[in-house]
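Thread: Modeling a multi-component assembly for a lab meeting

Hi all, long-time lurker, first post. My supervisor asked me to bring a structural picture of a complex we are working on to next week's group meeting, and I have zero experience with this. I have the sequence lines for every component (284 residues in total). Could someone generate the structure of the whole assembly? Inputs are pasted exactly as I received them:
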Amino acid sequence: MADIEHLQIVKASAADVYFALTTAKGLSEVWTNELTVHELVGAVNEFQFGSDDLTKMQIVELIPGERIEWLCVESDPEWVGTSLSFELEEKKGKTYVTFRQTNWAKVTDFYRSCNYNWAMFLYSLKLYCEEGQGMPFQRRKF
Amino acid sequence: MADIEHLQIVKASAADVYFALTTAKGLSEVWTNELTVHELVGAVNEFQFGSDDLTKMQIVELIPGERIEWLCVESDPEWVGTSLSFELEEKKGKTYVTFRQTNWAKVTDFYRSCNYNWAMFLYSLKLYCEEGQGMPFQRRKF
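Re: Modeling a multi-component assembly
Sure thing. I ran the full set together rather than chain by chain. Output:
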């Protein structure tokens, strides 16, 4: 088994980071603007990346300002069954974001690529929370 | 033990990416502009990040256009003894960069932070190779 784990600092409140990670407005700036987002445990969020690439995340936990957890229920086979969590801790006006995608079967080239791309997602989160504009899929240069 | 592994695509030749990762000019744009860089196996490169933070990397392998390996010999205690490698593979005008920092004692908050920051380094590498200007330590917003 393998996990992806990142820690990043965002100069914004935990409430603002939580908003960015749980609302259609926030996630459309941070990740992809083709999405359906719910704010309810048990519901399934949908994220589209181009015409073929659909990812569905079931919401497992929502603790405002503190913690978000998703279970990937549809996507690339290497993602299905992985757990994704964002833990937020605000200290002196900054929010420490610990991101994890756990339960990968093994370290593959797709794992390596996703590890890089989750950091790009977190960088987009930082840009959106600090400067008002993120770098979602549609605006990234690949 | 724990490893950091990323895979990134740069729209540039492997020769250009190799230049960026092995020369003072390249590494000053990609990582930090306070540095001493050699292009000789066995030599020790020095990278400074602000007044207190010095990292020394002994060059273990240099295969032009293909592979670079460093051994960290001085830095944060969690880094000393880790191996760092960049493997380059050019396909259809793009270079696939596999980066690894192996031999971490365990997954800590510093590991998580470095995992994020190595991706920022790779993003800086991409910006430099594709657009001519990277995002080294001195120009990054933390």
